[in-house]
Amino acid sequence: MSIRPITANDWPAIMAIQAQCYVELTPESLEVMQSKWQLSPASCVVFEQQGNVLAYALVHPWQRGDAPSLNRELKGPIESNSWYLHDMAISPNAQGMGVGKQLFTYLINQAKTLMVNGIGLVAVQGAQTYWQQQGFKPEPTSAKLAQSLESYPTGACYLYLPL
């Protein structure tokens, strides 16, 4: 098992995992997903076992207290000392193997090494409890953030983890 940066060959597996995991929202297009990767290729990673991609994480610089709208292609550079965890998804075939914990630990260690101030995310599909158990906390919602959250399913909430 290894965690490594995403390569161009990983995208079919990433798109399949996204489609399997997100049932309350329409999966984002390949172009939108790849724009996150192109914004910060070193922080976008896959979890691989025996040549099979089992999970991925798309992480890129973004302002604390804000989130990009869904289905929005991003262009850089983004000046920020915070990260945004746009997406971390684990294949249903890898559930219960500890992949999420290993992937999250890797991301936290990478962020601390790079002296990132913290990580924000929007929890969907009831995942806020999971993320709060990882140390993320709700933040006040600005008008700009509220507008971005309108693109997410009902119940989505912004959380932030200071590092």
Your description of this structure?
This protein is an alpha+beta fold and 163 residues long. The protein has a seven-stranded mixed sheet, with helices on both faces. The longest helix has 15 residues.
Compile the SSE list and pairings:
Elements: E1 2-5, H1 11-21, H2 30-39, E2 45-49, E3 52-61, E4 82-90, H3 99-113, E5 118-123, H4 128-133, E6 137-138, H5 143-149, E7 157-162
Parallel strand pairs: 4-5
Antiparallel strand pairs: 1-2, 2-3, 3-4, 5-7, 6-7
Work out the helicity level: 25-40%
Number of helices: 5
**Shape, per Cα inertia axes:** globular
Strand content: 25-35%
How many angstroms does the end-to-end distance come to? 26 Å
The strand line-up of the biggest sheet is 1-2-3-4-5-7-6
* Helix-and-strand structural type: alpha+beta
Unreliable spans are none
Q: H/E element string?
A: EHHEEEHEHEHE
How many β-strand runs? 7
Q: Largest sheet, if any?
A: 7 strands, mixed
Rounded average pLDDT: 94
Q: How much is the radius of gyration in Å?
A: 15 Å
